[in-house]
Amino acid sequence: MFRRTIFEPMLTGQSYSMFIEGLKSPVTKAAYTYALQKYMKYLNINDPDDIVRYQDNPKFIQNQIIQYLILLKNPPHSLSYATRSQYLAAIMTFYDLNEVAMVKNELGHLLWFKKTRSKKFE
Fold it and tell me: Which CA distances in Å does 116 have to 44, 70, 78, 81, 109?
């Protein structure tokens, strides 16, 4: 989907500039921007600068991310482990590059388990 796309910035704002300039690959820029837009839609905001408005309250931000990951994991979305992982990487990179401190270990556990094929027992 993103491999043949030439990246053109779709968002604006200081926090988005910090984010996008911290990424090298045009493919990563496109994929992470897409994931960030999905997160912004979930938060019901249009300006990326609004994502960091609660930077002094990392627990609040973590709770937002937790609720978002739960939404992505369950129906009707039921996104794969790989997709959820990429979305989380984009969100965490956005916060990291905008110097918002959070406890990453807690969020990594929220991806839960990869879907595995069930084995039939004889």
Answer: 33, 19, 14, 10, 17
Paired tokens of 57: 């309250």
Higher pLDDT, 58 or 6: 58
DSSP-assigned states of every residue in 10-69: ---SHHHHHHHHT---HHHHHHHHHHHHHHHHHHT-S-GGGGGTTTT-HHHHHHHHHHHH
**pTM of this prediction?**
0.80
Query: Where do the structural domains in the chain lie, given as residue ranges?
Result: 14-111
Mean pLDDT over residues 13-24, rounded?
93
pLDDT of residue 11: 86
Sequence letter at residue 24: K
